[in-house]
Structure formats: C-alpha cells, structure tokens
Protein 1
Amino acid sequence: MSNLFDLLVAGLATGAIYALVAVGFTLLWQTSQTINFAQGEFVMLPAFLMLAAMHAGAPFWLAIILGILLSMVLLGLAFKMLLVDPMMRHGVLPLAIATMALAIGIKEAVKQFFSAEASPFPSIVPTGDISILGHAVSLQSIGVLVLAILAVFGLTALLNRTSLGHQMQAAAQNPTVARIIGVPVERMILLTFLINAFLVALASLLITPIYLAKFSSGEVLGQAAFIAAIVGGFNQVRGAIAGGLLIGVLDNLAASYVSTQYRAAVPLIFLILVILFRPQGLLGRAEERTV
Amino acid sequence: MSGFAKPLKIALGLAVIIGLIVIPMNFNRYGLFILSQWAVMTIAAMGLNLTLGYAGQVSLAQGAFVGIGAYAAAIMTTHGWPLPAAIVVAIILSFAVGWVLGYPALRVQHHYLAFVTLAFSTLAFLVFRNESWLTGGIYGISNIPRPHFFGIATNKPLPFYYVCLGSLAIVSLAVWWLIRSPWGRAFMALRENPLRAQSLGIDTRRYTLMAFAIGSALGGIAGGLYAPLTQYIDPVPFNLSLSLDLLMMVIVGGAGFFLGPFLGAMIAVLLPEWLRFTEGYYLMLYAIAVMLLLIWSPTGILGILDRTMAARRTKAASALRAVAKSRLETVQ
C-alpha cells in the first residue's frame, strides 16, 4: 500500500506540472485558436535561460526571475507578434505547422548554443523525505504539488474573480461582442500569451530538477500536455487541470502496474477511449457545428 | 497553373522528367540516396495530401503508416518474399489499419481524426520498439535485400533510384486519375463544404474514411520502398516527428495542389542537405525558412504561384475588358 501512496503523490506532482502546461495550451486555443505544437519546447527553454543566467554569475533566485521575464518576452510577446499575429487570420492549420517548425528551431538552437547533453538543474524545493501518516514522501513531490496548485488557484481566481479575468473570458468567448462593450480584446489576447509564457516557465522550474535539462525533453512534455488538454476538454481551463492530474497519475501507475515498456501507451489508449465515448472531453462543453 | 499555355506546360513537365532520369546518372552514392529519399517521401506526402488537401482531414499518423509499410517489407523480404508481394501486403495492411482507425474517429466528430492519429502514431512506435520477436526491437532489422526486376539486380544506388522514381511515377498517375474521378471530386466537396456535400447525397463519412485509408495505403507504399532503400530499419525514424515532418511537407508545398507534395518533400529532404555547409545551424535555418515561408504564404509555395497566376489573369481580363469597352465607345 505504501507503494501505491508514493505513486499517487509522485503522479499528482507530475500531473500538476502537466496541468500548468495544458492550461496554457487551452488558453492560447481559446483566445486565438493557436494550437501550439511547440508548447513542450516552451517548457524546455526557460530552464536553459535560467542555467545561462547562472553561468553568467547570477545567483539562483535572480536567475529564476530573469528566466521568467525573458520567457515572457520571448515565448509570450515575441511569439505572438512575430509568428501568431501575421498568421492568425489564415486559419488554424498553417499556424499549427509554423509552431512545429518553431519547435524544431528552439530544439536545435538549444542544442547548438547550449549543449546536446543533459544538464543537472537545482531544485527550488529542498530534497529529502518527510513522513506523512507513516509514509516517507519526497519533499520535492510535495513542494511541486503545492506550488503548481497555488499557481492554478491563482490563475482561476484571476479568471473568475477579477474584472481583468472576466474581460479575458469575454474576449475568448465572443471577441465581437467583447469589443462592442469596450473590452480591449487585443490586449487581452496578449495577456493570455504572457500568462502562458509565465506558466511554462514555472513548469520548467518545477519539472527540470526531476528530469534534467535536455534539448529534447520538450517532446514528451508537449505530448503529455496536449493529451491532458484533449482528455480534460479543450475549451475548459478546469478540464485541462483535471486532465493533467489524471494523465500524471495514470502514467505513474502504468509504469509500475502495467509494464515499463508500454507505460506510455496507457494515457494514449485512455485518450482514444475518451474521444470515442466523450469527445468533448471529461469536463468540456460540446462545440456547436458551424456551417 | 492554367496561366501557362498547354504545350509549354507539357514541355516543362517532360524536361523535368528527363532531367530526373538523366542528370542523376553521374551522381555519387550519397546524392542518389538523397534523391531516392525524396521520391519515397513524395509518395508518403502525396498520400497525406489526399487526406488533408483533398478531403480536409488532418492525420498525424502518416509516419506510422510509413513504418508499417517498412516493417512489412523488411520482414517479408528478409524471409525470401519478393518486394512487389511485400508492397502489396504493405498496401493492404496500411489501408486496413487506416480504415479501422478512421471508422470510430470519424463517427464522433470531424476533427477528432487528428487526435486519434496522434495517439496511434505513438502506439505504433511502441509496438515497433517492444515487439522484438517480430520487429527486432531497438536493434531493428538489417540486411534488407533490394529486389531483382527481370533479372536485373538493383543493389547499386542508381538502379534502385530508378525503382523509386518508377514507383513515384506509377503512384503519381494513379493519384492523378483518382482526383479526376468522381471520387476525387467527392473528396474535394468534403473539404469545401461537408454539410452541403452531405445534403447532395454524398455519404460523407464513407468518402472521408476512404480518402484517409487510401492516403494511409500510399504511406505504406512509401514504407515498402524505404526499407530496401536504407537496407536497415529501426523504430526511431517512424516516431511522431516523421508524421509532423510529412504534414509540414504537404502544407509547405501547398495542400490540395497535385504538385504540392513534390515541392514540399524537396524542401524537407533537400533544403537541409543544401544547408549542411552551415554545420550545426542547418536545421535551425530550415525551421526559420519554413516559418518565414508560411508567414509569407500560408497556402505554401504553390499558393504563391496560384495567386500570381490569378492576379495576372485578372489583369489580363480587365485589360481585355478595357479594350472591348473603348471599341464599343468608338463604334457608338
């Protein structure tokens, strides 16, 4: 039983990180119909920005702040202005393909300018175990879980309780009407891109100490977040949160109860089942068909 | 394309075909390998273009179908079967898997095929990697023989390049015929307006499924050629990135244009090779080139051509109208 408990905690911790990434993913989709195939690389990059700052002599706390700010400039502002804005009106697919190219570009740039090898990354949560209900649980898992949950709660509070959040939701749900009632839609869309950049930088900070910083680590992460978003419901922030947690737990349980070889298959089969029996996602709304 | 005079178009086409036959004769081994790879990837991209460009469905599993074809060919030819028989099996297998995969996905909702194929792509990779009794696992299958045709061995790079080129020609003719047949027109109706197509009595689900399964079968053919081309296969080349690369080829070349996959595969296979002199930067430059191209023309390379042709036609037409009008005025 202690094994199951550990697995659940570890699964929830990775799941919470998937949830952060998946939430950003659905935010971009809702406000600008951007399917970001580079989302995994967006998580991979900030860790390297922070490492670069530390190599330049910055202390860890400063490197974190610089990394997050730089991510918001590069992955938020520059991504939106240089790639999304010129392509948005041409439909979903060309932009999705352009983000695939962007993913290749980011991966290669990190490989070329930083390293092709995996680098260790310091943890912001102290390592070691604590005892909960007689089980030894890794502090890192608990710390990751707490921080990710705080971020998600902060975001949902922003979206549901503040005027800014309501304006963002209005801009996402009906841009035309939002514009008429005076919501600065363009600024709201930019804000979601900045929030996404902040979320991926935070995810990067939390996940990299566990899996090391490597140029190719975005592939697995991006796919996990994508699956989490579909499973939870593509058009719902709380769906992405539930999807992320669920995929994280499933993945960890599958690794020890199914087989290590086919652990990656379990979330995928689950995805196919969800699509067959609840296509709008577990918590999603069905989309109306447009003619 | 109709801006060209027809004889000019035919002459240009013939020149390209003769060029593809004659010029590679004094290429080295590596050049021939790259060119053969272009032919193989063009076949796979043509299949995806049927699914995406003509029937309007996104498939993220074309790379997995190339893998299925490659493993079918590798397993059969290393057990003494001739390559054509293996390719027939590859076609049947990919078509059947495509049908089984597409049937439930298209039952639910239109764009869910993309999600199901995304999952399938990784599942197929896991099967290639883990079922070592069949696929050799991570060690793969080596010593894949190249075929003999009419007593001529194609072991050398040049003869095998002609096998790839010949297969490309056959597939191109078949696709050319298909998109001009009533089926092809039905596929396009699905892309343009699925609801209207349905109200006109087209069984949309069946036709979409058919386009996807035929497209997947072309992926299988490409795989059947890929295995003897590289003579060694392992699971790595058939992961999700191949599917994404193929999707990129179709969009960059121009989805829904017959010649789109030829150009897209050329960019994806040849451009990185041309950029090799920049060493570590070549894939980065390739990625930037693709992004710039898509910002400039989201409909791909042929989209640019199409627009210039259309602009020229409108210009010519308005010039003719102006002439006609002034003539009318002078008569009055």
Note: Chain B touches chain A through 39 residues (CB under 8 Å).
Protein 2
Amino acid sequence: MLFRTTLLALTTVLLLPSPAFADPTADELLKKYDAVMGPENFLATIQMTAHRDDGTTRTYKMTVLKKGSEKFRLGFAEPAAVRGQEMLRQGDNLWVYMPNLKRAVRLANRDSFQGGDFNNADVLRVNYQADYTAKVVVDPTRADAWQLELHAKTKDAAYDMIKLWMRKSDSQPVKGEYYTASGKMLRMAEFTEFKVYSGLMRPGKISMKNMLATQRYSTMSWDSMDTHVDPPSGKFVLDDLGK
Amino acid sequence: MFSLLQIAVRNVLRNKRRTAITLAALLIGVSVMVSIRGLLNGLQRSLVQNVVQGQTGALQIHRVGFLKNVLSSPLSLDMPQDAAFEAKLLAVKHVRAISPRILFAGMVNVADQTIFLGVQAVDPIREFKVVPLRAKTMEDKELFETGKVVDAMVVTEQLQTALKGSNVPKDAPAAILAPDKDGALSGENVTLTGVMKLNMPGEKKVGMLRLDVAQRLLKMEGRATEYIVAVDDIDNIAQVAADLKAALGPDYEVSMWDEIATFIKQAMTRQNFILSLVATVFLILMLLGVANTMLMSVLDRTREIGTMMAVGVRRSKILGLFLMEAATIGALGGVIGGGVGALIVLVLHARGISITFPGSNVPFTIQPYVTPTYLASIVAIAGLGALVFAAYPAWRASRLRPVEALAGG
C-alpha cells in the first residue's frame, strides 16, 4: 500500500512539469506584452522620427496619457505644423482634434500615424489580449526567443496577423512582423534599448520598417514613462480636446 | 481582254437566280463588316474624346518619376505653379490651354464619418478650358467655378451617398484631411457644393477640390504636381510633346493621353483584334459561297465549255473567263455591300447612338463613321478574294476534255 502510494506520488511528480521550468503559454506571453507595452495607466513623452523615401526625416514630439485599457489621449508638441493637434481613443473610437478646424474628426485604426510607418492603433491601442488570439509556434532559427502567431479577432485590430518574438530570458518583445489577411508582410519592427521606467523594464525604442516601400522606416522612442499616474476620466472626452 | 470581260458580265447576268443568291451573300457580308467597323470607329472616337476632353487633356506634364511613384510619394515630385513657369508652357506652338492640378489621397469627414478618397485639386476655371467635357459631369458647377464658395469641393455621387447616407443635415460642416508635403496630418474645412458623375469606369470615391484650398492643406503654396495641356489639333500631339520637353528640360516628363489612359489604348487594340477575327470569318464564309457558285456553274456549263473548246478557244481563255466572272460578282457584291454598309453607317451617324459604360453614369453619344480608304479596301478584298476562291473551279473548267465535255461530261 505504501509502495503503491509512493509510486503514484512519484509518477505524478515526474509527469507533471515543474512550474519553475514550464514554458509560458501564449496567453501568458500576450499578457506580458500588454503589461510592458501598454501599462494600465501611464503618462509618457515619446518621439517619433519618420524616415521618408527621399531621405528626409521628420521628428514628432508628443505626450501620451493612458487610463485603463480603453482610454488614450495624445497631444503633439512638435513640429509646429501639428502643434495643438490631439488624438483621443475611447474603446473602438478614435478621433483627431485639428486646432484650425476647432473640432475632432474620426480616424481609422489602420491609417498611418502622421505619415510615418506606425499606424494609429500601434500607438493608441495596445491591447493584444483583447484584439488577438495567439498560439506559440516553434521558430527553429531562434533558440533565444518564443515566437507567437497572433490572429486578429476584430477588424479594429492594428493588423490581421502578427508574428511576435519574445526573448526567453525575460519575456521582453524583441521583434514583430505584421501581415495582411492574405499573408503579405507590411511592416517589421525591432524592439531595442531596454530600460527601466518608474520600476517597469521595457523596450525604449521601436524601429518600424516599411516592407512595401522599403526605403521608409520610422522609429519611436520613449523619453519618459510614469506608470504611477491616475488621470481623471474628464480628460478622455471629446469636449475636453483643444483645452 | 475587253471582249472576255463582256462575255463574263453577260454570263453573270445569264443565270439571274444564282447570281442574285451569290450577290446577296456578298452584300450581307460586306455591309455587316462595314457597319461593325463604323460602330467601332464611332465608339473609339468617343472614348478618345471623353478621355482627352473629359479627363486627361491631350498631354500631361509631370516631374520625372512622378507617374512611377504616384502611389508612394505623390507630393514630393512637384513643380512651380506660377506665371513664369506657365509662360514657358504657353510659348510652345499649338498649345491651346493649360491648367495645374495636384493629385493626392486624403480623407473627407462629415458629421463624425470619415471616408478615404482620391482628390484632384484643380484650377476651377482653367480646368474646364482644357477638359471641357468634364463640366457636363458636374452639378452646380458655378458654385465651384465662381469662387462664391471659397472652399468648394465636389465628390462623386457614390461618395456623397456614403457620406450622407445616415440622416446628416445638409449644412453639416465638412473637412478634408491629408498628410501634407512633409507627412504631417493637416485639415481644412470644405463645403460640399455638389456632386459629379463618372464619365468613365474607374475609382468611385473621388473628389474635386479648388487648387488654392489644396495648396493650403498640403502646405504647397505656388506648387502643383501636374499640368494638363490642350492642343489645337490632336494630330500634332507628338510634336507638341517634343517641343514641351525641349522647353522644360530633363527634370520633366511629358506624356500623351494614351500613355496616361493606357487602358483605353489596350481596349482599342483588343476591339480591333476581335473585329479583324470576325471579319476574316465572314469573308471566308462569303467567298466559299462564291467558290461554290462557280463550281456549280462549271458543272452546269460542261457542254458549253466543250463547244467553246471545239471551236478553238484556248484553255487559258476558259480559265480567264471563269476567273473574270468570279471577280465581277465579287466586285459587284463588294460595291453594293459597301454602299449599303456606308448608308447604314451614315444613318447611324446622323442619328447618333447613346450609350452608358458600365461603371459610369454619364451617357454619351457615339457617331459611327467609316473612312473612304476602308470602303475601297473592303471592295478590293471582296473582288480579289472572289478571284482567289474561284481559282479551283476555273482550273477544273480549263482542264475538261472537249470530246467528253461535248458529250455532257
């Protein structure tokens, strides 16, 4: 009896993978991605530089405020041409406030963000857990990272399909490839310059390469990010834009 | 030789029923061919006119590389839009009128609805001097033209329906948004003053905007991405294109309308190919009829041929006689058929045929026509073809043996 119990216990222990060495599931990795790239609340100052086909560049400076998973507000500080422009997300809705029109105009998630190579959802909708179903796939070329394959659940998601690599050492995102529904690669991102922002370790820079117009790419870097803010809800309504 | 022709004509007239049937076949074949060619000519002329006078102008001027890169960077390859530059264009011989444009992609917004569109920003007066047919596609053109509404924009009916489908008040403010020359998002208020129809199949979500509004929106004051050019005679365009290119130098490219609207040229080539295929089939059927008649004629007239040979008519003369008969019928059928065809075409030309292309909503009239050269060639083809197809029956006749032929074959 004792022998049998011991054997059973042993088998159970042997068969159950030890939690300390278990591979993370796709859902765990997505959760990690969202926690790193879009913490619950934050106030960040960000710079985006768009490199265009003709070799010229243009740099945009902005602040982004986020509250919960549904609310974003973004304001441009530079260059002068877009100073005063603001963007607001409420759930699936996205608007841009144009100071010269003195009103907000609805935008689509997949429009280019200020003519660069990120789209609006890349910047103002980081909720991969809500937008995608994911599975872990094996990438024989990279032993140091897990590869995830993400398929959009909704048309409002930034892309139809994403391949995402997260390194095994600390589950930080390192690379992304973004595809159309038909499997054509639109963009490729590299995540670099990992830094600690108010206690949160995350990539400090993303380079987004345009795979259709291959001369073009854009970089986005985070100058600061404060995750200990609690902005009032009144900041995230249309009437508050431009004030 | 003349006597041979005389005898041939007399022979043709002798068996009236057989000749009538052969002529009828030729007449129908030739007149149908002429009518189809006439219709196609009319259709193609209308197509070209609609494109040249309603869309592209005869010639277009761009910066080198613009047409290749129009999808990725339509604004960076631009050119001056000022009096000095325009004087250079107008100085070229045979240039009748010019007008600047900026083409760009943007979004139009009405009452919390934003829709993508392609925009043609045009000079509201000069545009219609270069492409006058375009005015027909617009409602309330005056509002756009006169500047009474300084930020006027017209969109296609399809876009209007998409924008105003859901109980939007008529005076709801509208705005146009687009990345400016540097890529930064920019917006301007516009007033939707009316709708335009599409005169050709193509992109349905498009709008036309006053050039000055677009220049402000795109931060492109005093710049344009395209000039459209009207010439005084469309037959001169190759020369005018070369002269413009010489005047502007290597930074610019000058394109003829058929290099811009390539689909028209392709459609025309395809139509011509199909027509020549149909025409060839018709011609062969028709000429087989002629060959058959001649063969019947030879069999019928065996005794007659024997008699001719018996009185010393040479085999070559017999051959010649039958060939001549065929050629006479061919030429006669060709002339009558060509005449009937030309008459049909003339009537259709006078009446005009109104058609609307699928995907477009402006009807236009086509006026069929044929050229004298085409008529002459079709008559020649009918005559010569009859000659060729009569070769075998004529040869058979010339090879008959007089004694057997006299005995009735």
Note: Chain B touches chain A at residues 69, 72-73, 76, 107, 109, 112-114, 173, 175, 177, 179-180, 182-189, 219 (CB under 8 Å).
